[in-house]
Amino acid sequence: MLPAYFITFTTYGTWLHGRDPGSVDRKHNTLETPLLPASERHESKMQQSLRQEPYTLDEARREVVLRTLREVARHRGWSLHAAHVRHNHIHLLISAEQPPEKVMSDLKAWSSRRLREAFNESADRDRWTQHGSTRWLNTDAEFEQVRRYIVEDQGKPMSVYDAMNHELEA
After folding, report:
1. What is the pLDDT of residues 101-159, one digit of tens each?
2. Would you say 94 and 69 are in contact if contact means Cβ atoms under 8 Å apart?
3. β-pair partners for 161
4. Cβ(99)–Cβ(21) under 8 Å?
5. Is the pLDDT score of 62 beyond 80?
6. CA torsion 7→10→15→18, rounded to 10°?
């Protein structure tokens, strides 16, 4: 079986380190471990470093991104098990031969391209944070826990895909 990854990335400027309820960085990137704590000072510093306005995904943009995630995964031979495209972040459960950083990079690049094409957006518009969270899943229990988290535990469903139950409608 191919390695499974839990990949999360946020839209540009919408989920800054220091913001409550916390965020994930390289030191806070393991399942069921504490997040980076909230800090107004840290959040303010991050806000001041933004080069552009924050980027959010409305319903039409979320659907373009979800379609693109599925298209790219299928084209690359990856198994997209679950995805939830929210207004300011994306969660994915995916299996691939490539490292998770490469998977995330490709998905961001193709999503940006499809958003540019669909909405006539500028090519120099920042849409995503510089990196994201890439967690390796090592057990069936972790895999199922993450699948449930992505599909069921994000609040009101937005643009969701669950390979076990096919597409879910928002």
Report:
1. 999 999 999 999 999 999 999 999 999 988 899 999 999 999 999 999 999 999 899 99
2. no
3. 83, 167
4. no
5. yes
6. 40
